[in-house]
Each structure stands twice: as structure tokens, then as C-alpha cells.
């Protein structure tokens, strides 16, 4: 017997993202954004929606999407190194920071390339 | 090589390869082994950007390890799927050379899955008449290929690779390629590149659709660049919608195409919202068989949903409930764990799937040396049109990338060796460099960002230029895209921030990508029939007089097509 009952789209939930902004660790700081999301959506879903709707100058990078292969969206989420494309959003508050052990470029982007791959 | 004078970096190379997926990496390796110095650039990270690394499925290759097979038989299947529009020379090149590239990757330590007798495992896939498709477990064929190619490139001194470089213009003189201009994404510094040959390996334009399997950096800009440089594009109205694209429940950590290879191995059942098999209503003998071509599947799902028999999220069900847990484990391996993390238990509940924009059959017109007709300009991989006609066979994309990339690298190197010193000078790059500087910090006060325009474009392409088309929707889309290209693009706000300014990257993607999107829409309008992946609700039949490729050029600021008038 096939169970064709499926969960209908969830009600929107909301969370507050505390996102690191700036080009130096000394002078930057966190900015807070309230966002809504459906259960199961990711931090990268939230960040790309923010860029599209209200914060286009937020620096965040990725190439593949939800496939966990390009590794570009690695960042610190609630204090843990994670891929933003697979880390799920949760209610309450989430803190989003750039990787701690790499030179900060801007916002959530750190320098992860070898010197050979740069001009 | 780099010269920081006037805040512009300048690099000279024999061959410039643009795009670091399988086509670009093979082109670079091939150019280097034929004696060229190569610069390989990617807007994201070389070897990690592009679609290759996301390809979970299979490579079609007539190795004959599982049962007798031949490139000729592979060609027959490819031409059949292409619905009369394949460029047969290109298709033949793909089929004949795929085994060479698969063996080469084997030498480079790609772990093709083996049979018990040690031979390479080959499985059947839709539209293939033989067990022909090779793969790497689990669901990591593309990632394994990308890793092997990255490894080859990093140990090759003739190849310089630069990540985070966005290409904005090709530089031409008297219709010939002199090089290219772009900028370093991390600093917004313009980069001028003098090269005798440029190979474009930038993939398709599927990012322009709301539901897409494309990575973020495949934005159609290569097609726009080629059009502006004088190249033709061919068959661009044919865009493949992957039938079993994941829809619900929300799944992250696996790409949305996961279900098709799983269905290949296990035989998943497609059911409508009432739990009934439906493929047999669309000319298929049984919904349990896995040999339905992609365009037929897409059509069946679309019609089922349109008729009010869709699943709760507006797709159809794919069920594995008849499959034993051990078989699921064997087929999915670590992917099963990812499904569990997403609260998906295949033994208890079906998933919902629906078509998703996946691959662009059409592209830059090339011959079997990957020459575009613009001297010095080459194209390889998904961006090259012709090999797949109106519909691509499962498993033909990776061999196309590898075979065409390899061929382009060799041909471009031979071309470079014949060239005398080119007429490069700073004045030929100045307008392109000035444009980059001018767009940075462009603030007209309207507050509309490139990211917002992208959102509008993706919605427009999905709803009006999607898998089933009609005159009214296409005309409306064409008018809107043209307005975006000619007017709205100029009114976008781009911050002056130089470090990783994503709005700057997106502005240039849109500048070229909108031209490509307009070409696609125009081509879809002109083709007043249904064929392969191009389906018109208002012209549902396949017509003999349309069995020809549509070619589009950009002349005096206008897109022109050989199908402006209906063919006789």
C-alpha cells in the first residue's frame, strides 16, 4: 500500500540571524536580520534570500547549491565550522561568522585559495 | 607576467581556457600536452565550480565491458534521442572518443565501479540500447572526475590556474580573437589577458530558471560573450528539464538529481497524487520500467499535474516502498544517511519529484575541431551546441565535456602555433576595462540590485519559457527580457565595494546572460512545432519542415535567426 499522504508545506517560522559584517576582525561587527523560513531550509537559503530581498551587498559565496561539493560556503554557524548550504535554519537566534582560521576578506568570505591560484 | 601598472593586471598566454569544469580542465591538459602555455580561469574555484562536480550520475561510453557494444551503436541511440537535429559529426566524435577519455581517467585513478570479474560495471540508462553507462559510487561520478583532473592540472607546470576571475569581454580585432578582459572577484581589479586562442567552457544557462540543478556560476554569460564576438549559437531553444528533480520534503546535502540514478539501480515507481501509475497513459508500457526518455517523462508529469492529479507540493510521487532496506542501502550507501538527516525514510513514504531545468542542448556553433567560426575562439562542453540535437541522452554530458575539451585544447594549440604576433594593444581593451570601472559603484538611486533582477528573471523564465511553451507567454517573456537587457540593467545599483562584490559579478553575468536568455526566447518563438525538449502547447506536432537547426547571430545590436520565417 502506497502512503501518498505527505506533509503539506510548513508554516513559516522566523529567526534572527546575527551576521558578521566588515573587512577586518578588529573593526567589523555583527548585524542582525529577522528572516522567515520553511522548516528544512538552510542557512544559505536564508543568506541568498537576504541578498535578493534587502541586503545585496552582503558578501557570501557559493557555486554548487545544496550539493556539498564546492566547499565554498564553509563558515562558522553557531560557533561550529559548517557548510551553509547544508546547515539548517532554526528558530530563535543564529550567529553566522566567517571562518576563524583564515584571513578575512569581507563579511562571510575568507581567503581559502592557495597563492598559486591568485593573481 | 602580472603588471600592476594603472591598476590593471595584464597576463599573456598562448591559450586561455575559461571555466574550470571537466571541459575546461580537459582543454587545459590537452593544450599543455600539445605544447601550449595555458591559463585556466574560473569565476569560482578551478575544479570545483561548474556543473561537473555536481554530476552524480553516469558517463555513457561504448566500452563493451558488460555486453557487446560499439561507438556506432552509441551514435544510433544519440541521434535517435536528438529527434533529427543532431550535428552528426559532433555526435560521432562524442561516441567514438568517449572510451578513450574513460580509459584515460582510469589511468588517472578514477575508481569506476567494477563487476565481480574485474571488468568495469556498465548499466542501462534511459534511451540507451546497451548497458553502457559507467559510474563512481556513491553518486559521485562528477566529483571523482573533477578530483582526478584537478590532480593532473596541479602537477602540470604548463598550466597556470586562477580562481575567482570573472570574464566580461572577448577582445577582437578584424573579427579575430586577441584575448579577453575580466576582473579579479576578490579585488574588482580589471585583468587583461592576451592570448592567441580562447576556449569557452562556461556551461549553459540553466541558472536562469527558478527550479534548476545548475550551480550558481552557470549563468549563460559565455553564450552572450560569444554572440558579441561574432559567433553563432545553434539549437538554443532546446533546454532539458530533468524529470525526477527533487521537490519535497526539503532535501539538503544531496543534489536534486539524486533520484534518477537511484531509480536506474532500483526501479522506483512513479505515481500520481492518487497513488496510481500513470506513464502507461502516455504511451509507455509500464511505469516500473526505467527506459522512458526524459522528454516523455517530463511531458507525462506536467500533464498529470495540469490535470489535477499532482502530489501535495505540485509534483508526482516517486516511491521506493517496494524495495528492501538492504537493496536501498547497497544502492545509496552514505546518501541514505543524508536522507535520514532530512527526515526522509524511503521505506515509509514516497518523495515528491517534478521536472527541473538541467541541461542546455543548444549552444555555440562549432565544428569537430571546436572552432566557432571566429578565428581563435573555441567552445567545448555544455556551451557547445549540436551534439545532442533536440534532446540529450542520459550520460552523454560528461563524455561531451571531456571529448570536446580534449579536442578543443589540441586544435587551439595548433592554431596558436600558426599565428604570427597578434595586434594586441591597450586601446583594444580600454573600453572593456572602463566598463568594469564604470559599473563598480554605479548608483542611480533606484535601489534595485542585480540579485533582485536575477530573481525576476528566474521566475519569468520558469513560468513563461519553461517546459511547455506558447506564443503569448514567449512573446511576453521576450519583450520583458529585452527591456531588462536594454534598460533595467543600466538602472541597477552596484555598490562601490571592491572586495568580493557579488553585485558586480552578477551585473556582468546579467549583461551577457540576458542576451543569451533573449536568444533562447526568440528561438523558442520561431520554432512553431514541438520536438524533443521544446514543447509548444499551441503547436503540438513535430513538423518535417522544421527538421533543421536554428542559428542565431548578433548583428548591429539585434539578434537574428535563420528561422525568422517559417521554413518551407
UniProtKB/TrEMBL annotation, chain A:
Gene3D superfamilies: 3.10.20.30. Residues 17-112 form the Succinate dehydogenase/fumarate reductase N-terminal domain. GO terms for molecular function: electron transfer activity; iron-sulfur cluster binding. One of its GO terms (biological process) is aerobic respiration. This is Succinate dehydogenase/fumarate reductase N-terminal domain-containing protein. It comes from marine metagenome.
